[in-house]
Amino acid sequence: MIARRLLTLLGAGLLAAPFIAPPAQAAWPERPVTVVVPYPPGGNNDILARLLAPVVERQIGQPLVIDNRGGGGGTIGAGIASRAAADGYTVLFADIGILAIAPHLFARLPFDPDSFAPIIRLTEVSLLVGVPRQSPHQNLSSLLAAARARPNALTFATPGNGTAGHLATQMLMSLANVQMTHVPYRGSAPAQVDLIGGNVDLLVDGTLLPAVTQGQVRALAVTGPSRSPFTPDLPTVAEAGVATYNFLSWHGVVAPRGTPAEAITRLNAAYNTAVADPGVLERARQLGLPLKGGSAQDFVAFIAAERAKLGPVVQASGARVE
C-alpha cells in the first residue's frame, strides 16, 4: 500500500514537472565562412571573391576567409571544397572550367562533378585574345597566318589545364586549323607576367583588360558573340575571321552538396546584393567583368546546360588531360 502511494505521488510529480525544451539550434552563421578560391591570387576568381567579400560580410554578419588552393586547373581546390563539411561554413568560388569543362577534359578528377549545391552565378565574361605589346601581330589574322605557316612554333599560355582560357584557345586552334604549343601556368597572374615579358606569344584570358589599358598587352579580339561594352573597338574572333567562334566564360559560388537550405538562401541573397552594389559595379567595369545574379535554381539549370553544351566542344578540340 505504501509503495503504491509512493509510485502514485512520484508519477504525479513527474507529470507536474515543467517541460524543458532542448536548446534551440543557432541560426546560421555563427562563425566565419571559408571561401575556397581554387586558383592562386591574381586571377578573376580571386579578384571577384575579394571584391564581393566586404558586401557579403555585411549581409551575413560574419567574415569571409579567402583560402587560395591553386593547382590542377582549379580541380585541387574544388576537391578540397567538395570534401568539406556540408554545414554552410565552406563554399567554393567556381567557374566554367571546374563545373562544365573539367568533367569532359580530365580522365580523373579529385571530386564528383555533382557533389556541389549551386548558390549563384556571378558573371558572364568575354575573354580577351592578347599578345605582347612588342608582338609583330597587329591583328588576329596575322597571328593565325604565322601559326599556320609554322605549326607549333608559336606558344600560347593558359592559367592551367582545363581552364576557360585553355579550352577557348583549343577551340580557336581547331576552328582556324592551326597548331601552337601549350604552356600551362598555375593561374592567370603568372601567365600574364610572361605574356607581358614576351616569353609567350598568346594568352586568351579574362584578366587582361588592365594590362591592355596600361599598354602592356595588345588585345586582338574578344571571344564572345558580340563586342564587349568595355572594349567596343575590338572585334570579336568571329569578326576577325574565325566565323563560327563563340566562347563565354563565367563564375559562380557553390557549396558541398547537402549544405542547409538556410545557408544557401542567405548566401544567394548576400551575393545578389553584392553584384548590385555601385562601388562593386564600378570596380568590375574597370576590370572588364560583367556581373550577373539570380537564383540558386537558375544556376542549377545553367550548369547542366553548359556541361551538356561543352562536352562536344571539348571532344572536338582534341584536348585531354590524363
From TrEMBL:
PANTHER family for this protein: BLR1237 PROTEIN (PTHR42928:SF5), TRICARBOXYLATE-BINDING PROTEIN (PTHR42928)
Keyword Signal annotated: yes
Signal peptide: 1-26
Entry protein name: Tripartite tricarboxylate transporter substrate binding protein
Similarity-based family: Belongs to the UPF0065 (bug) family.
CDD domains per UniProt: PBP2_Bug_TTT
Pfam families from the UniProt entry: TctC
Gene3D superfamilies: Bordetella uptake gene, domain 1, Periplasmic binding protein-like II
Keyword line: Signal
